[in-house]
Amino acid sequence: MPLSVSMKRIDMTSFSDSLHTAFFLILAFDPALWAIVLRSLSVSATACAFACALGFALGAFLGVSRFRGSGLVIGFLNTLLALPSVVVGLVVYLLLSRSGPLGFLDWMFSFKAMVLAQTVLVLPLVTALTRQIVQDAEHAHGEQWTSLGAGPCMRAALLAWDERLALLTVGVTAFGRAIAEVGAVMIVGGNIDGFTRVMTTAIALETSKGDLPLALGLGLVLLTVVGLMHALLATLRWAASRWNAGVTQPLNVRPW
């Protein structure tokens, strides 16, 4: 038997064994695996909550406001959409380092540092998408609120509420972006076992160590989470389109 064929068989056997062990770790609720998963979900959910709170307000205001330099602000915001996560991690690292302006917080290599990094990472995404949604709503029926005497802040709040289903899709998109990134949390979190290790950083570390079952298990859970996010996103978009179209369907309830 050629050496290349035998090596392929060994690799396939190793992969199948690792995949089998990975499924076992997931289904057996392995404490180490699920601790990493829960920490990752907590970091990304907290970061998205902060990013949405800030991004919805800022994006809605930019969507209805016209001021000198607004084009530059929007252009800068769109530029930040392509900012690599490692650059965000580096900036937050410099801010939180002992010699940085936020060094007094003593957040380096902590849960708070990872939340801050992911918040900075997804905030431009939430703000830009919110601005576009509210701006489109402003063009469609913003004049009605203006005629009733609503100022920019009031119009921004009312239009954002009208587009609340669309904004939910923005939040889901931000969560998917946050939970799948690795660079920022690796730099500011340090990937400390039991404290700052999340799914993406653990996958990178365990793969380099050769612990394929744990890496595969975390990868499968991460793929499942991202898949559920996309399914939820599709559902919210469908609900938003039905809502905007004004289509309602009565429930098909049959008596027993």
How would you sum up this structure, described in words?
With 256 residues, the protein is an all-alpha fold. The chain has one domain (14-240): MetI-like fold. Helices cover 77% and strands 0% of the residues. The chain contains 10 helices and no strands. The protein has helices at residues 3-27, 31-64, 70-80, 85-96, 111-147, 152-162, 164-179, 183-189, 199-209, 212-245. It is globular.
Number of strands: 0
Helix and strand content put the structural class at: mainly alpha
**Cα distance, first to last residue?**
68 Å
Give the averaged pLDDT, no decimals.
86
Tell me the major beta sheet: none
CATH class annotation: Mainly Alpha
Could you tell me the strand content as a percent range? Answer: under 5%
Low-confidence stretches: 1-12, 247-256
Gross geometry: globular
Question: What Rg do the Cα atoms give?
Answer: 23 Å
Q: What is the count of helical runs? A: 10
Return the CATH architecture. Orthogonal Bundle
Helical coverage, percent range: over 70%
- State the assembly state of the protein chains: single chain
Number of domains: 1
The arrangement of helices and strands along the chain is HHHHHHHHHH
Q: What is the name of the CATH topology?
A: MetI-like fold
CATH superfamily: MetI-like
Summarize the structure.
The chain has 256 residues and is mostly helical. 77% of the residues lie in helices and 0% in strands.
